[in-house]
Structure formats: C-alpha cells, structure tokens
Amino acid sequence: MPDSPLSESPYEILGVSIDADEATLRLAYRRALRRAHPDTGGSEAAFHAVQRAWMLLGTPDARAAFDRGRGGLGADGAPTREAWAPAPPRPRRDSRPLARSHGHPGGFSRERYLTLVREWAGRGVELGDPYDPALVRSAPRELRHILADALAEEATARALPNLGIAYTIWHDLATDAAGPGLPPKLDHLVLGPTGLFAIQSEDWGAPVSFKRGELIGDGLAGERPFRALGARAKAIGRAARVKPTALVVVVPDEHAAESLQVGGSLRGATVALVRRSRLVSALRDGLPGSAHLGGTEVMEVRARLQAVVRFA
Boundaries of each J domain copy (predicted)? Predict the structure, then answer.
C-alpha cells in the first residue's frame, strides 16, 4: 500500500529540508535513529519510520525517484509507486459469491478533493496531475485529509464484498444530517444476518482511541466521529423506519491499539473502533452486544432501505 496523503514525508521524519546535501542527510539519519530507538526513549514504530525514511532517501537513485514523486515502499519493504489516483478494477481470483454492493465508494470525496485542490492551486493554473505526490504533499492538511478519506473508503469497499452473498452493501449514501463542515453522506451501510452496520472509513494520519464513548486523537481537530456517524445513520434509518445495530469507525491498522474495541452504545447501537484488516471478520461474526437479525427481518430491512436510499 502507498503512504497516506497525511503521512510525514521522509524529509520530515529525518528533520531536514528537501535540499539537504548528502552529508547533512546522513548525519540527520544517525541522530534520528538514536532518538527513535526504543532503548533511548523512542518507540519501535518511530524507529521503523526512520529506517524506512532512509531507504527512500539514502541513495542518490532512491532519493531522485522519491523527489520525482515515484518513490515508495510497500508493506513488504519493496519499492512501489504511490497510487493516489483511482485504481482500475482488479480481476477476481476466485468464484465465491460476493456481497451485493451499490453506490460509488470514495466518489464524493474524490470529487470534493479535485474541486478544492484546483481552487487552492489558483485560477488559471494548469494541474497536470492532481494526484501527483509532490503536489499532494504541498497542499493544506484539509485537502490531504479529504483524499486520505477517499482512499480509506475505497480500501473498505474492496474488502466488504468478501462478507458473502448474505450481505448487502451501500456506499456513499446521501444524508442531510452531516453537520457544519462535514460531508453530507454516510460512507457505508452494511446489512446482513449479524446486523445493520453504519460505517465510517477514516484516516486522520495519527492513532485514535476511546474516551467516554467517543474517539480522541491528535488528528481529530475537535471532531466527534461517533456523534456525527450516529446522526447520519439516524437520518437514513428514520426514512427507512429501521435502526442500525452498530456504528463502526474503520482506521488503518497502525492507528488503533487493538484490532477491535467496543466503546459502549449510542442510541441503542453498539459503538466500535476497528482496524481495517479486522473489519470483515468483525462484521461476519457480529459485534459484542450488537443484535443479530433473522432472515425475514433482513429481507424487510433491505426492502425498506432500497426504497429510500439516495447516493451522494
């Protein structure tokens, strides 16, 4: 996977400017490595981040590739290209029945990003590639967050069909209950025998955790994600005369201390923070304290939702 648009660049991790010479870069790497080492007060995550930054900048060829916006490392440490533009559909490798999906995941966020990045660049400025990594990294955090959200929604959408044929999924559902400054839509709604799940896919660029039934973290900037998610789910549920059984926020694996954390309930719905890699199994098994639905009930809820769902 490519880095998030909210990730620190390797220059920022090492604490040097992009025009630092080779000697300065090497000295900064050694100092950063000492600071980040767990034995000297750092952490394993910080230590690995410094090592990864050096792999991207430590040789002239690697640095030149990164500076051209083409350098990156995959989860396995192998070089890769940053892929923030929409990806083409992937061919299926098996014939298992998939969940039924409706809507365009990430579409609203991508359109919003493209509109705002052109406004930010300025009238008359030609943007050859609005997803160019150098351009994205130079954009304000608010714009990078919108693109990060689109990527997060698309990653969730790629995983959810693996729930199987018993489930139905809606993406980018329109709702008027977004609140000031928030997009007027619900990222995902999943219906199956283990419940009706309202899901928000997020990437705040930093870890989050529970406190008194709500999420806290350095990247939140005053947001109250579960309160907003509950309002969106309530608006759609009221129109369809159904109630969600769970409110789920999905984040990158490294942004949650545990794979699945339940934080109580809100308006009768179980509240949960889930790592992206754990999402499918969590929904398939059902969340602790979340009501399951009978076969007839699933059919009734699906019919009611299909009659009222609109897409953003």
Answer: 9-70
